[in-house]
Every structure is written in structure tokens, then in C-alpha cells.
Amino acid sequence: MQLQPEGLGVWGIAVALAGGAMRGSIPYMFVSLGECLTEKSGKINLGMEGILLMGAMTAFAVSELTGSPWMGVLAAAGVGLVLGAIHAWLTQQPAVSDVAAGIAMIIFGSGLAFFFGKRFVAPMAPQLPLIDLGGWSHVTAIQSALRISPLFFIGIALAFFLHWIFTRTSWGLKVRAAGDDPQAARALGINVNAVRFVAITAGGALAAVGGAHLTLYFPGIWSEGISGGQGLMAVALVIFAKWSPVGIAGVSGNGQRELVEVIAGQRGAVSGQITVDGELHRPTRAMLRKHQFYTLPEEPLKNAAVARMSVAENMAFGVFDQAPFQRGGSLLDRAAVVRLGRDLIARFSVRPPLPDAPIGELSGGNVQRAILARELSNGKVRVLVAANPCFGLDFKAVDFIHERLRETRNQGGAVLLVSEDLDELLELADRILVMSGGRIVHETTPEAADTAVIGRQMACPH
Question: Could you tell me the sign of the dihedral formed by the alpha carbons of 93, 39, 315, 337, in that order?
Fold first, then answer.
């Protein structure tokens, strides 16, 4: 009797190709997930190749030494956490380039892997158990192609989980804000450095798990060239995929912007401190809430909003980590966020009235209304800092903002208005300070103000 070779057929070939694609995609998937998390926070980690190699070597070594491939996966994730933390720390130092730090991490990670992995260039360590999806076929090639590592399904689940975190949790909102507009995030009391550190560290752990797949399933051995540059290719995929209002006058460039940035927490203070009722104030979320301290910075779309996020999400930045917007510790109730957006849009006449529209698509006046709504809608305002709040706006928007500033003053709030429009200061402020060369050089009241004197003080160097 003559034996006939098993026929794959067209469908069999397609299924086998799909199985091979699933098997080969796992390292790319985990590194891409890790880099996506890193880049969402506003950083980049070109060192994923080194982390991938170190994860591969660690998983192989621990699996061989303990006999448990899952212990190898956990150990790889732990090593990825450490290397990710090193990269996170490096990239947040002054004058350190993300690209340079990433290249250093490739050299460091691969060097460690090659050094410690010399004794493990050997036969296969205990491998991960496989999930058999080909039992329905009598063709051996298809059965083999559809024996899939559980890491594939874990990676798919993690992709949906990360999407859920970014859109449904308060921490995900912080990551997106830190990545899209760190200046605005700092003004909202978000610790951008801490958020980025956690995101980059977790991203390193994910990349290292991708390395574990290489040595515990396919190709299933440890060698120095095992990654074939998959870490760098995955990174490339992600990249291409009633206090008297005080007014401060001055010519632009004399320290007004820097003063507001220090007050808002967007710039470190060289000296001095801020106090509210004699109590030291720092621009953390806890302190901002305690002191009921709000800021309306210059160019709010750049400094107080995240352009790609929705109007409702931007309006919820002040309260997203409080009930009823946060449930169960960190879950974001998006329905509550949208309801808040609709309510504030109606109260502050934001146009168009679309809570899900990106705030970057709004006109300047409507962006200003939206940010003002967020800052003034949380109850009593004790301190409000407004920097050139009406610059470039139409008369209707200017009148609206001036009325809100007066309401804050009349309700007992302290208002610091920084403006280059002297007429605006004379109309709204009870006390006017002139700033020049980074110093306060003149003080007056609207009643006693001499515009010629103020003009000379503003123009003359001090």
C-alpha cells in the first residue's frame, strides 16, 4: 500500500499561516503594549530591545533552575520593572535625552543578558504549556501550527485592558493628560513625573514578558541573537502607528508668565513661597482642593487643557478622582463625566454644546469658557489666578469672563489678574502692581492711578 502525504489544501495553508502569525507576533505585541503605555505618558523608550533580551535570558534561566516556566515569566517581568525604572529615572533628569537614554538601555540590557546568559546557551529549559486549538483537524501540520502559547491570549486581553484603563480609570486620565499636555496636567495638580515613572516602569515589565516568549516557546532556546531586533521594530510600530482683586501690569516678557507658571506649579520656584491664610501652599491636587485654589492660565488650550481629549473630560479634570465620577477606588464613571460636561456647557454657554467633541476643535473664547467652567464650578473659590484671560477674544466672551471674575470677588474670593491690558486692570482691580524685569516696581489703585507713570514704570528697565 502506498502512503499519500497529508493534503493541507487552501484553507489548511491559510490556517497554518494564521497559526504561525500568532506564534511570531507575541514579542511584538508585548513590546508594543509596553511602548504604547510609555508613549501615552509622553515619553519614549528606545531601550526595549535591551529589556526584551534581558527578559528572554531571565525567563530561560529561572525556568531551567526552578523547573517552572511561569516562574520564568514572572522573573522576566520583575527584571523588566527594574530596567524600566532605571530608564524612567534617567529620562526625568535635567538635559537627558529620551533617545540617548534608550540607546544606553539597549547596550546595558543586552550586555547584561549576554554576560549572565553564557552558562545558559544550552538545550531547552522547561517550556510554557500550550493551548491546542487544532484538535478538530486530522492534519498534523495544522495541529502543530495551532498549538498556541497562552501568552498570545494574555497579550490580547492586556490590549483591551489597557484601552479600558486609559478610558475608564482616573489613573488612565492622568497618563493621557501627562502625555498630551504635561504643562496643563501640572497646573491641575497632577504629578507628571510620578505618573510617567509608573507608566515607563510597567512598560518595561510588559516588554520583558515578550522576551520570555522567545525562550519559553518559540524558538524556545537562549542565544545572543535570539531577538533579531524585534524590540526596536515594535517601538517603530508604535511611533508610526471677598478679597480685593489685585492686578499685575507689565510689558510682555518681564516675568508675568513665569510668575503665573510658578503659582500654577508649571515651573519651580528659585526662592520664596506661596501661602494661603498663612498656610504654606504647594500646587498638588490635595492642596489645590484644600485651599480652593484655581488657575486660568494664559492660552488655556496650551496650558490648561488637553486638546485631543473631549470637552467633558477636560471639564472633569478637577473632580475626576472624586465621587460620583470615580467608583471603586479608580474606576471612571464616564456617564457621570458626560453629565457634568453637559451641565457646565449649558451653564457657561460653551459652543458647540458637544461634550464628546475634542476641546481643541473649539474657538478660543469657548475654550476659555470651558476652562473657566471647570475652575469655578467646584463650589467656593478662595483664590483665582487669571493670566491675560481675554486676550484675542470677542466682546461677548470678554464681557462673560469679566462678569465671572467680578462674581468671584463679590463672593469673597481673592483674584490675581495678570494682564497686559491696562484698561482691563483699571476696570476690574482694586489694587494694581507694575512688574518690570521680574520685580514689582510700582503700586497704585485705580482711583489714584496715573497712566503716564504706570506706562513709564512698565517701559523703563529696572
Answer: negative
Question: Whole-angstrom Cα distance, residue 35 to residue 43?
Answer: 9
Q: Which residues contact 25 (CB under 8 A, 6 or more apart)?
A: 152
Write out the DSSP string of 295-327: EE-SSHHHHT--TTSBHHHHHTTTTTTSTTTEE
Q: Is the peptide bond before 219 cis (omega within 30 degrees of 0)?
A: yes
Residue that wins the pLDDT comparison between 117 and 165: 165
Which residue, among 74, 78, 52, has the nearest Cα to 235 in the 3D structure? 52
Per-position DSSP letters for 20-87, written without gaps between them? HHHHHHHHHHHHHHHHHHHHHTT---TTHHHHHHHHHHHHHHHHHHHS-HHHHHHHHHHHHHHHHHHH
Cα 271 from Cα 291, distance rounded (Å): 21
Listed by start position, the domains of the chain span: 9-240, 246-459
- Other Cβ atoms less than 10 A from the Cβ of 86: the count is 20
Q: Which residue has the cell 519559553?
A: 216
d(CA 188, CA 290): 14
**Considering only CA atoms, which of 87, 53, 331 is closest in space to residue 207?**
53
Q: Which three cell numbers stand for residue 313?
A: 473630560
Rounded to two decimals, the pTM is 0.69
Helices 395-410 + 364-376 axis angle, to 10:
10
Query: Is 355's pLDDT higher than 50?
Result: yes
Do 230 and 437 contact (CB within 8 A), yes or no? no
Q: β-strands 331-332, 326-327: how paired?
A: antiparallel
Residues in the chain: 462
Tell me the average pLDDT across 177-200: 90
- The CATH superfamily assigned to 246-459 is P-loop containing nucleotide triphosphate hydrolases (3.40.50.300)
